[in-house]
Amino acid sequence: MSQGERRMLIDGELTLAESGRTFENINPATEDVLGDVADAAAGDMHRAIDAARRAFDETDWSTNHRFRKRCLEQLQEALEAEREALREELILEAGAPRLVTQGPQLDDPLADSIRWPAKYIDEFAWTAELPEATDPLGQPGIRQVWKEAVGVVGAITPWNFPFEVILNKLGQALATGNTVVLKPAPDTPWNATRLGRLVAERTDIPAGVLNVVTSADHLVGEELTLSPKVDLISFTGSTAVGKRIAEKGAATMKRLFLELGGKSATIFLDDADLSAAAMAGITVCFHAGQGCAIPTRLLLPRSRYDEGVEIVAAALANVPYGDPQRPDVLMGPLVSAKQRDRVQGLIRAGVDEGATLALGGGRPDHLPRGWYVEPTLFTDVDNTMTIAQEEIFGPVLVVIPFEDDDDAVRIANESRYGLAGAVTSGSLDRSLNVARRIRAGAVNVNGGYAFGPDVPFGGYKHSGLGRQNGAYGFEQYLETKAVAWPKA
Asked: What's the predicted TM-score (pTM) here?
């Protein structure tokens, strides 16, 4: 057993649940118990909400820009000091391959997700001057627009990229002067409790500014949505839960940032270099396909369909997968038995609806323990099939033929999701023309990468509301106040 931090952070104190209950943290690669963590109830959550409310209302956290910046820099230093311990924890509890932690699971967010917002505190336009104007009595006046923190933020985060999502939420919410109650996913609690310990022990962040509440009960997180003391919910997860948050939060007029599901399409036009389709295809195996923006629909021109399928199938057949501790592994396990069973149920639906299972689809014989599914390829897929419309969240790629550019755009957009997409062509102008017509929040063109600390990220349609990162992310966590006074 490898025990991580068991305690939550509430009102500046590292604490267990009032009931003393805990729940187990399971290694998805081995099915072994790693250890346990505090299992909070509604009362624990309300203690955290009250602490966050007091910290916002009774301290100068929301207005003291210099102090906030220093505290975030302290947190950055503390996290970097424990980088390798965080890496091992993510491999163990999330099943994240070591190779993936060197990118978006750990090293990428650790480089920018706190540092960039801390730096941007000094650059953001907290006050904007408007032209002088006269009031109804003809008196000249000064007018300004002020940006102020929303208040208490309830941050609810998923298990797939837990550390990355947490840092992207906290960096922006704290930099803009909000206080936060963080409810991490019960499948991957230790990276969050470690962060809570570092805040308590290694920073000057005041008590109550950040609270971390762990629970196996998802309804404990719903207390954030229901409480009138919470001003904004920042949620990353499924569209179904996002809709529930919007419904439950309506009674208290919650501000919402919802980063939800995706069914992203990658389009290769008929003049594209199809050798690049190999990399596009194996992307679905990145962290076992457990990513909302991972492109899981590959659209190929009918005139080159067989050529493209052959390239993609060869690439998928050679994806290194298995023990996430191995340095060469791209794909580890799914996070839980429940998720594995869901993925396999959708694979069966694809077969039942008439798609061709060209590769994989089962549990690998050489990995009897752990929640693994083989890299899976479906061909002869119609975009109306379940596997082309549902977010599978597993290593499953569907390949769909199209007739021309208009048909490709139609297929890409015939989805209730609109999170991300990609298009490749031998002509940049042609790719850009298609990209402009794709209804998605981020589109990679000819191998570009539309993601970073200064790039807005979020979705159209059922993929969510709002944007994170950059100036757009700051605005997500701010209110706008107009002020005016007579000119002297």
From this structure: 0.96
